[in-house]
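TICKET #2291
ISSUE: user wants both folds in one file
ATTACHMENT 1:
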Amino acid sequence: MIPPLVFIDGDQGTTGLQIHERLRDRSDLKLFTLPAAERKDPKRRAEAINACDIAILCLPDDAAREAMDTIANPAVRVIDASSAHRTQPDWTYGFPEMAAGQAERIANARRVTNPGCYPTGAIGLLRPLLQAGLIPDSYPVSIHAVSGYSGRGRAGVEEHEGRGAVNAPSYQVYGLELAHKHTPEIQRHAGLAQRPIFVPAYGAFRQGIVLTVPLELRLLAPDVDGAALHECLARHYAEATHVHVLPLLESCALKHLDPQMLNGTNDMRLSVFPNTAHGHVLLSAVFDNLGKGASGAAVQNLNLMLTQQ
């Protein structure tokens, strides 16, 4: 049997490099990338994408759209790691654990859009709770997340690891205009009726994310508390391989969250921190922005799609 041909378009960025690293020793597929001299040749790129079985696009949004326009071969399947198609209804959202049957939909899809790093954590926390009716879709959601500097791509890596690294900031909050491009993706796939407030930041560590969502119990139904929220998440992800919910007693014993604890994996850990005295609950997600937040998720989606290749 001829192994399927997988073409990575844009294998020199942080996500593309990590995907290549994860796939290069696989014997069940044939990995293909363009040599340096051909990477910017539109004709050569079009030939490559139309000759493969599955293309993984690791490109800026506009370049990803342009790549899609060159596909003439109806047999070509695509995983797009950019944000160009994440809210498009004719693309399958590549978060296998977010809903029942989503893994099967990805396995059979022709077009899969890889989730953004921040949305993976936010949707992973919020969607099950909204679907269960524990959080109303009108809840005024606020999200804060801190990512490693690799989340900025090459620019972030160069700033912190290049010649001027001594002057790199230790921490910086950005997106102050509250218009981050991931916000519509979070709203759509979490099932929120209104736009959440999303405030991201970068820290002086290479990779990893801590994302938090605070909740006020007074805005929820009288029978909803930290235990109910935790039970819902634990039940939703009970059979998941890559998403784990920390037991409530263990989360209550924690004093801090380490954004780097799952680096190098495709796993995500969710936690619930209730404060009964004040009627507050904090939801958290910890994962690798280059793992479950990018390349790990792309490979997970690829593996699902290969089952139907």
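ATTACHMENT 2:
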Amino acid sequence: MHQIPDLPRLLLVEDSDEDAATMREALELSGIPASLQRVVTGDGCMDALRDAASPPALVILDLNTPGMDGREALTLIKSDKLLKNLPVIVVSTSGNPRDVDFCYAAGANAYHVKPVKYPEHLNNMTELIIYWLGNATLPCRMLEHP
């Protein structure tokens, strides 16, 4: 008897309801079966990662969230021996070179600036999902908990 694998899960760290709705629509348009879990703060991100029975396939991280921001969450993820291999994609309104350089130096796997126009943003997020969940080879497993 074959066990049906769990759907890949995306963890979306996004405080904007509109951007979260765009990501849900992009996931649907991608045609890739996956679930989407949304949190609105960096604290929520870390709680979701630490409390999950299994890690998400991908974290999509906004930088400017209330409370702990995405920069701090990214730093914590990439410095945690149990989470550091988790792909983290930053999606932000900031195109500031300091933010871009900071995120790559902290271990982000990619950085995308959110376009102002909705159709372009939706298309970019759909392509992002297709690439990361459909084309890229993701880590097979995270490090085991001690």
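RESOLUTION: both attachments delivered.
EXTRA DETAIL ON ATTACHMENT 2: The chain has a mean pLDDT of 91.
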